[in-house]
Design goal:
The chain has 394 residues and is an alpha/beta fold. Helix content is 44%, strand content 11%. The protein has 14 helices and ten strands. Strands 2-4-3-5-8-10 form a six-stranded parallel sheet, sandwiched between helices.
Length: 394
Amino acid sequence: MKNFLKYHLLPLILGLFIAFFVAIILVKSPLLLRKNEKTKEVSTTKKLNPNSCLATLVENEKQELELLASLQEKQGITLFGSSELSVDSRFIPFTYLPEKKGIRVNAFGHAFQQNFAIYCQLLALKKSLKNAKVCIILSASWFETEGTNMEAFLEFARPNFLKKIIRDQSISLDVKNYIGEYLFKNSDKIENSSQSINYFINLYKYKNIPFLNEYFFKKWKEFDKIAYKVNATYDKSVLADAVEIDWDKEMEFIQKEFTSKIKSNKIFVNDEYFNQYLKQEDGGFKKGNLLCLPKESNRELEDFKLLVQLLKQEKCKASFVIQSMNPHYYNKLESFNPVLEEIKKLLEKEKLPYLNLFTASKKKYEGGTLTDIMHFGDLGWLKVDEFLYKTYAK
């Protein structure tokens, strides 16, 4: 037994002990880290459209530049949203405000873009946020999910954006670990993990092992520097001269116009949508439910708080619109109220303007605010137009 301890166990322990310290020395050694001084330039000289909506950023890098340009040009408005941006309405802000008030509005997003995807885009471009006029449309339906889905994240948090976040040493380790936690917990949904994604995952995975965490953190030096250059201006010849608008009168007119066209239902949904998606054989419809997650464990709410913190920190002229959902269709809309109160409380504390169009009450809901069960109709968009005009231009 003594010989076993002397000639086998003790040498093994000693070897492991030596290997452990050699590993620490190697991990801390700069020889294992490849420093990359390569700069990737992304630029455009294309004339920019001052009244557009980009549904996605996945098609080419020029779309990233359009978002950057919108933030850098401080006169116009950058609008973020999700599926409501695809609604066909003459009152949608990127059409109405350029035509009626001569205000540039560029919108970004489509279905499933939520707070975390928006946060990562703005975090990557944070040096352009100061004095940028940014409005974000929130939907109550976001807060019944576990946060931004992976497909949407990859579509909007582009590889160049992730590299900029990695290389930006002014972004805290806590924030980078927050991104890493999200990617780590959703890694099974990533088909082809990139070097950038692996960086964040490893940073989070080894956050409690100091020397490994330090090693993976320092690998930021291996990533390309991303240099965006917008050598283009907006074609403002397409912006019309401002006209006077009687907002109340206009809203009264379009509400009457909407309700007069409804023939098939009494829940303030346009006939085409009702007949195609809601109507049952007996002429009635089956109601839906909104089941928001508790505010104490709501990932979307945490993402929202992080987004507000970034906007305030970078002195962005940010505002929010809280979209309505149709209380004549949905049951349990009041499940959003605790989260809504948290949202309102934070925005009021930070003195950020917001427009709240959400109500769980059938009596308080104005027909025409939505065109269907959850997307703005003409009346809703006109309310948003008025809010944007009074917040940013008047």
